[in-house]
User: Which sequence fits this backbone?
């Protein structure tokens, strides 16, 4: 694990974009971390979460690790808590793991289950793919509008103990775990 690199986990709030800069003046994830004050240079987000998706986002200046974490061949696991506007049937839920035809190909969840058996519109969805707005589009394809979407786990990291809009540095053990996942 390189000692000259920095690793930050941000619990991304809603209405924040995942870019390094924005010419429209919108709040970016880069605005939420005081990089300069903490001696962090060249930081960038690993992958993307759309503006209204919240949760775990990794920021780093380790290009090799970032490349591998986002490369499909490493099949990095992502877990999302999805709240839909309406109740979704078991049959429609099953379609999420069987595969759904989207305009850019078949999208498939590795797992999709109810977060609570007594609640018909709250789900845990696992995937390793990362098509643009994939979960929202998959739910739209089964006729369910997503009300809230939160990434609760990314490559084994969670936002536990990190409030929305806040961040923490990764521990050496967490960075080592990421390196192992991408065979570095």
Assistant:
């Amino acid at each position: 694990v390189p000692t000259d690199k920095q690793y930050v986990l941000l619990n991304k709030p809603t209405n924040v974009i995942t870019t390094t800069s924005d010419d429209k003046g919108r709040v970016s994830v880069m605005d939420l971390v005081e990089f300069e004050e903490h001696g962090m240079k060249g930081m960038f987000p690993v992958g993307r979460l759309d503006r209204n998706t919240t949760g775990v986002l990794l920021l780093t200046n380790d290009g090799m690790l970032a490349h591998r974490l986002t490369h499909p061949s490493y099949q990095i696991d992502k877990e999302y808590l999805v709240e839909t506007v309406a109740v979704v049937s078991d049959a429609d839920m099953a379609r999420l793991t069987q595969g759904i035809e989207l305009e850019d190909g078949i999208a498939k969840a590795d797992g999709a289950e109810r977060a609570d058996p007594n609640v018909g519109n709250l789900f845990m969805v696992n995937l390793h793919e990362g098509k643009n707005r994939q979960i929202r589009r998959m739910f739209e394809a089964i006729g369910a509008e997503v009300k809230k979407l939160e990434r609760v786990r990314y490559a084994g990291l969670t936002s536990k103990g990190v409030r929305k809009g806040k961040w923490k540095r990764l521990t050496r053990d967490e960075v080592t775990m990421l390196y192992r996942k991408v065979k570095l």
About this structure: The chain is about 20% helix and 30% strand. The radius of gyration is 17 Å.
